[in-house]
Structure formats: structure tokens, C-alpha cells
Design a protein that fits this description.
Length: 277
């Protein structure tokens, strides 16, 4: 589609760049299709949790140190732990053990993972905060009729207490955690199962996340995606292959309208377009 548009630029535009032309004539359909306050009643929006909706790394780091430091392992910094997040508690523990000393048996790592989860569950929200503009964006999208879901690798034992304490749980129709699916992100099944739990279809769904796991999962599921720049990704955001990049949650409604308003009724397929309100 992009090549067809570019081939028509010479005869259809004057003094505008190709990207600006495409933005006006492809993404501009959003205004015609949705209009101001347009409905998203058949759209499922699947959100990652840590690094996308909440900044949880300090509490995760505290619980990890509480578990490992008594065993003679050095304490972690929050910056280090950012690199462990996104793949679930077992992978987090494996990485922490690998980077702080001698390897341990699988059984020992499993036991430490459970100890970490117990420590984290006791105090899940000491320093954790909701990222700016999250509530406003969710209210706007819910007001348009979108079905809001969480698709997280965080296990149920910690995800639900965090959501409840931060007063986020009631804002979502469905929460699908990593321990509730056979194949968690980056497998596309996790995204598909989240969409189906909402009664939706991949053709009218978008994944919103902050990391390679989230965008890979969306791509594996054949679902368009938005990546936020304020999370925990170790990969440059432009290299992730998302359909839009946003620097603030206040830009999410516009980004979603643009993605959902492709000429074929689906998403545009133009990856990694940065969107600002």
C-alpha cells in the first residue's frame, strides 16, 4: 500500500513530504471514519502492565534483593532489574542468579522464584506508580466503547494485588496473566487468548506495550501494536516493529484511531510512526 501511495505522490502533492502526504491521506481517514468521539465499541485494546501502565521496577527490585541478599548475593539496582522485566518471574530469577554468582539447580531457582513472589506480594505497591496520563487515556478509550484488557507475563498472584491497590483493576474487562496461558508473550497465543476472552477478534484489536516481548507477541498474533517510550525496553523503539510510537499516554487515543483507520478497515501496516497529540 505504501508503494502505491508513493507512486502517486508526484501528481497528487505539492510542497509536502511523502510521509506528510501519507499521514494526511491515509491516517486522515481517522477523522472521517471515527469523527470526534467516534465509537470503538468493537475494538479490543490489550495492554501490557509493567513498563506500560505502571512503573513497578523499584518494588520488584526490593523484593528480589530481599530474596537473594541473605544468600550472599550482591544487591541489584533498579536499572539492572529493568533488563529482567517482561518475561515473567521465573526468567527474572534466572537472570538475577546468572548475574550475581554461581549457577543454581533448577529446583533451587524455582524455590527462590516462589520466595520472591511471596515477598513481592506482601508489599507490591510501596514505590510503584501509575504512569502519567494513564487514567485519562483509559477513560477516553472506555468512553468510546473500547474493551480494555491486560495481557501481562506477571503472574496472577502479584498482578491482581498490584492492580487492586493502584485502583486499576476495575477499569479492565479482562486480565490474562502469564500463569493463565500455555504460551506467554512473546508467543502470539497470549495476545489471541486475551482478545478472545473479551469476545473480540484480532482484526479489531491492538496491543499496547513497552518492550520487545510485547511487540513480538503482537506481530506473532497478527495484531497491530503501539509501543510507549517510557518503559523498560532494551531495544531502540524504532527497531521493535510497532505500528506507532508514543511518548505519552495522552497520545494513545490518536495513535489508535490512526492505526484502526486504514483504507481496508484494518491497520495501515506502516510501522513505527511516532505520534504526538
Amino acid at each position: 500500500m505504501r508503494n502505491d501511495l508513493l507512486s502517486s505522490i508526484e501528481t497528487s502533492r505539492s510542497n509536502v513530504s511523502p510521509d506528510e502526504y501519507i499521514s494526511r491521506h491515509v491516517f486522515g481517514i481517522a477523522g472521517k471514519k471515527f469523527g470526534k468521539g467516534g465509537s470503538m465499541k468493537d475494538v479490543v485494546l490489550a495492554f501490557d502492565l509493567d513498563g506500560t501502565l505502571i512503573d513497578s521496577v523499584h518494588d520488584v527490585c526490593r523484593a528480589l534483593n530481599h530474596t537473594l541478599v541473605p544468600l550472599g548475593r550482591r544487591p541489584h539496582t533498579s536499572e539492572e532489574v529493568k533488563g529482567y522485566l517482561g518475561c515473567g518471574a521465573p526468567v527474572l530469577m534466572e537472570r538475577a542468579i546468572q548475574n550475581t554468582g554461581e549457577p543454581l539447580s533448577e529446583n533451587r531457582i524455582n524455590a527462590l522464584t516462589q520466595a520472591f513472589l511471596a515477598a513481592y506480594r506482601q508489599n507490591p505497591v510501596v514505590e510503584t506508580t501509575v504512569f502519567p496520563h494513564v487514567h485519562e487515556a483509559l477513560d477516553t478509550l472506555a468512553g468510546k466503547g473500547a474493551t480494555l484488557a491486560i495481557c501481562t507475563n506477571k503472574p496472577s498472584i502479584t498482578a491482581h494485588p498490584v492492580l487492586k491497590t493502584l485502583k486499576l483493576e476495575s477499569l479492565f474487562d479482562v486480565v490474562v496473566c502469564g500463569d493463565q496461558v500455555a504460551n506467554r508473550k512473546p508467543h502470539g497465543d497470549h495476545v489471541i487468548e486475551t482478545i478472545r476472552a473479551c469476545g473480540g477478534s484480532p482484526e479489531r484489536a491492538v496491543m499496547i506495550g513497552d518492550s520487545e516481548n510485547d511487540i513480538d507477541a503482537a506481530n506473532n498474533a497478527g495484531v497491530p501494536s503501539v509501543v510507549v517510550t517510557f518503559g523498560y525496553s532494551l531495544v531502540p523503539h524504532g527497531d521493535l516493529g510497532a505500528n506507532a510510537i508514543i511518548e505519552s499516554m495522552k497520545d494513545l487515543p490518536l495513535a489508535l484511531e490512526k492505526i484502526l483507520s486504514g483504507v481496508d478497515g484494518g491497520y495501515s501496516g506502516i510501522a513505527s510512526r511516532k505520534v504526538r497529540g
